[in-house]
Write a structure and sequence with these properties.
Layout lengths: L2 E3 L16 H12 L8 H7 L4 H13 L3 E8 L2 E9 L24
């Protein structure tokens, strides 16, 4: 379960993303600070922080849903082998919509 960093250039851009929760911004900051190739899993992140397992899981899900994290499962003979986590400092999802804004305004200004 390795951490892979992709094209991290504007590391502070995600901080201004209005869609991400404060928890997601904090977790992404922590992931960016880890060394590339770090043997990552959600249990280790839980031990580094005071958040519970469900909080960590939902924050990873939020980052993935918003295009800041991509999980890639590897299989060995059909069985689960490992998960690689690729992180980005800018969402890889074009024209994301903020569900909190009525009439769904696009975040083109963010791109």
């Amino acid at each position: 379960m390795a951490l892979v960093k992709k094209n991290l250039q504007n590391v502070k851009d995600y901080v201004n993303d209005p869609i991400l929760s404060l928890n997601a911004k904090g977790l992404l900051t922590q992931l960016i600070e880890l060394e590339d190739g770090y043997d990552l899993n959600q249990e280790k992140i839980g031990k580094m922080n005071s958040n519970g397992r469900e909080s960590i899981k939902s924050t990873f899900d939020e980052l993935e849903r918003n295009g800041y994290l991509v999980r890639t499962d590897s299989r060995d003979g059909g069985r689960y082998f490992k998960t690689d986590y690729t992180i980005y400092d800018k969402s890889i999802i074009p024209n994301r919509v903020n569900p909190k804004i009525k009439n769904a305004q696009y975040l083109d200004w963010y791109r």
